[in-house]
Write a structure and sequence with these properties.
Layout lengths: L1 H4 L16 H4 L12 H8 L9 H4 L7 H9 L3 H9 L5 H7 L11 H4 L7 H15 L14 E5 L3 H12 L3 E6 L7 H4 L8 H13 L3 E4 L9 H7 L2 E4 L5 E2 L12 E3 H13 L4 H4 L9 E5 L3 H12 L4 E5 L11 H10 L2 E3 L2 E7 L6 E12 L5 E5 L5 E4 L2 E4 L3 E2 L3 H4 L27 E3 L2 H4 L4 H29 L1
Parallel strand pairs: 1-2, 1-4, 2-3, 4-16, 6-14, 7-8, 7-14, 8-9
Antiparallel strand pairs: 5-15, 10-11, 11-12, 11-13
Helix pairs in contact: 3-5, 3-9, 5-6, 5-9, 6-9, 7-9, 10-20, 14-16, 16-17
Bound molecules: flavin-adenine dinucleotide and iron/sulfur cluster (2 copies).
Length: 480
């Protein structure tokens, strides 16, 4: 049966779900891809060659059982496919939407290397779990027998939420603290709806609430409690706060009105999508409508900003990046989407100054050229002398990446160990920080990374925390 349904990659061409036309999708914040119809999902899953050593799974940070759930999908056994997919991931439908598959599972699919085009793994993964939600197959979290122990999780992003789910399953009381008014971290307020519609995130959060996980939103550790206060309340703590210190630009005029931070801009847009009152959007300061917009940067955040500006009705949108297309960190797929939607990329260019006094009116930029490779192997950009040019701009968005905040100071915890980059130092084996019973996971340990790695860390750290708490409970029984 399996052989009948599978190995169809020679005669059946790769086909992703259709994208909505660029002019239509630029009018709203809905996701751009349509869903597979059932026969298409089955047919695409059936292209898998069922490798004995599946490189797709090896390169998936969650080591998802990809060939197995592809086979179940191809055979029309969708509910089983969902159960298997769900067994290694807390958010398969989210990863299916926003993982950079070209660098992970699909980029390592053997039939991509043989020239047939990778199996469309991410789109099938999304299809499986979207179907499961529609069919009511997604079950409540199975809460284990109560351990009488309590966990405090700081940060409700994918790392914190994943750990919360596994720790609740293990029977612990789980409290999640987040400074935002909604859970989800960057899934909620960073990533725009055209990549990930917000209902997808909110239904995951609701499922965790229904399992008895207590969310303390609007609670900022460092302002509303110190780390020690939380340690006194809980048996163990997880720090999963992500990285939020925006990298700056050193150039004259950078403090002018109209030069804004990427995350403030994206958060304002996402809040409008929720129907919130956002004064800085309504007064125009964080709204691109009618403006000439220049976004500085070449990563995922910059891609999200340019495409948001298009949807807000900008007069023009340019992306200024100091390297070339081949050397940018952002996904090539996203560059393609942005170009289709009308974004102009100005490669090998960097800002030198911002004109206009109080309010920005233009960007003076220099042309760059790529020199010798640096320590990371990427060719370092250097200024091409005498190559300056100017771009008109009345909104400039700085999207140069993020670093860790100074958590030891913010949390009132000077003995919390950090690396020279400010990320929290966690033991490679136990994921525990320098403080007993305080663990860390996600971007705050790795530096800015990916959702799928945050989910993986949440899964791993939950196992370590559970083992540590059980050992402590056992020791207490022995001592009694
Ligand atoms: P976060 O998601 O950042 O969550 C941390 C949470 O901690 C936040 O809710 C924050 O409010 C809370 N917090 C912080 N400090 C405190 C405090 N003191 N007290 C209480 N709460 C606190 N990855 C992908 O895989 N695909 C993408 O397409 C993608 N696009 C991205 C687009 C943008 C604009 C950005 C910025 C990132 C993107 N990423 C993407 C990266 C991805 O979002 C992150 O790697 C991931 O969200 C990290 O998860 P996390 O749980 O570690 O942290
Ligand atoms: Fe691919 Fe990401 Fe899904 Fe893994 S989680 S199979 S990398 S889309
Ligand atoms: Fe199937 Fe490609 Fe994975 Fe091989 S690498 S098992 S062909 S999805």
């Amino acid at each position: 049966m399996a052989d009948d349904a599978m190995l169809k990659f020679v005669g059946r061409t790769q086909s992703y779900p259709d994208k909505r036309p660029a002019d239509l999708r630029a009018e709203d914040f809905r996701e751009i891809a349509e869903r597979y119809a059932v026969p298409d999902a089955e047919a695409q899953a059936g292209r898998c060659s069922q490798c004995g050593v599946p490189y797709c799974s090896v390169h998936c940070p969650l080591h998802n059982h990809i060939p197995d759930w592809l086979r179940l999908t191809a055979e029309g056994r969708l509910r089983e496919a969902y159960q298997l997919s769900n067994s290694t991931s807390t958010m398969p439908e989210i990863c299916g939407r926003i993982c950079p598959q070209d660098r992970l599972c699909e980029g390592n699919c053997v039939i991509e290397f043989s020239g047939h085009g990778a199996v469309t793994i991410g789109s099938v993964e999304k299809f499986i779990t979207d179907t499961a939600w529609e069919q009511g197959w997604v079950e409540p979290v199975h809460v284990g027998a109560a351990t009488g122990q309590s966990v405090g999780i700081i940060g409700a992003g994918p790392a914190g939420l994943s750990a919360a789910e596994y720790l609740r399953t293990a029977g612990h009381d789980v409290h999640v603290y987040d400074r935002h008014d909604r859970a989800g971290g960057l899934l909620t307020y960073g990533i725009p709806g055209f990549k990930l519609e917000k209902e997808i995130v909110m239904r995951r959060v609701a499922r965790l609430e229904e399992a008895g996980i207590v969310f303390h939103c609007g609670f900022e550790v460092g302002r509303d409690a110190s780390l020690d206060d939380l340690r006194a309340r809980h048996d163990s703590i997880l720090i999963a706060t992500g990285v939020y210190k925006a990298r700056g630009i050193k150039a004259p005029g950078v403090g002018a009105g109209g030069v804004v931070e990427a995350l403030e801009y994206l958060t304002a847009s996402n809040r409008k999508g929720f129907g919130d009152a956002v004064p800085a959007y309504d007064d125009g300061s964080l709204n691109a409508a009618g403006k000439h917009v220049v976004v500085v940067g070449g990563g995922d955040t910059a891609m999200d900003c340019v495409r948001t500006a298009i949807r807000q009705g900008a007069a023009s949108v340019k992306c200024l990046y100091r390297r070339d297309r081949a050397n940018m960190p952002g996904s090539q797929r996203e560059v393609g989407n942005a170009e289709e939607e009308g974004v102009e990329f100005v490669w090998l260019s960097a800002p030198e100054a911002f004109d206009g006094g109080d309010t920005v009116s233009g960007v003076r930029a220099a042309r760059m050229r790529l020199g010798a490779p640096d320590a990371s192997g990427r060719r370092a950009p250097e200024i091409d002398p005498g190559s300056g040019f100017q771009l008109p701009a009345d909104l400039v968005i700085k999207a140069l990446g993020f670093e860790a905040e100074d958590l030891p100071t913010l949390f009132g915890a000077p003995s919390l160990g950090v690396t020279r980059w400010g990320t929290v130092r966690a033991d490679g084996k136990t994921m525990m920080t320098s403080l007993d019973g305080v663990f860390a996971a996600g971007d705050i340990v790795r530096g800015a990374s990916l959702v799928v790695w945050a989910i993986r860390d949440g899964r791993d750290v939950a196992a370590h925390m559970h083992a540590w708490m059980r050992a402590r409970a056992d020791a207490a029984v022995r001592a009694a």
